[in-house]
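Justification of resources, computational component.

The compute hours requested in this renewal are based largely on the per-chain cost of generating structure records like the one below. Each record pairs the submitted sequence with a full structure-token output. That output is archived, and it is also reused by downstream analysis tasks.
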Amino acid sequence: MMECQDDADDVSTTAVAKKKIMPKRKRKFNRDNNKRHRSTSKEQQRREQRSGAAADNVDAPVDAPAEENGADVQPAAIATPTPTKRIQQPSLCPSHKVRNAEKKAEGFFNECVKVQNQLNEEKIKTEQLKQELQQLRQQLIDDKNMHEDKAEELKDLLSS
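The structure output for this chain reads:
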């Protein structure tokens, strides 16, 4: 009887010992502003060094540098920054939104004014060119009439 109870106790303790207690899941979002926590590249490098050191030397303290832990550290690997996700800009308050919209509108208005000025300059140039063309046409017509008159005078002189 006693042996049965001991076996039952062993089963219950081994079942508890075998049961893995999962740690609570870390919060993905900050309670204040619901933005994801972003780690900098330095923090990521430290984590990589620690994880590499932990795999190489289990007994070494976690805070010790990787070289002391026995990990092979390559300067080129540490010097290159790890790519990070693009950080989303925080939303602006209404007054800043209005200011930004006003700045954009002002820039757009200034651009429109520049284009309008260029258009006016082009119109002035085309008007000047039209006037020059009209003068050249008139001069050509006058020259043609003068040559025709001279030709008739020469014919009259030759016939007489």
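The radius of gyration is 45 Å. Residues 4 and 133 are 121 Å apart (CA to CA).
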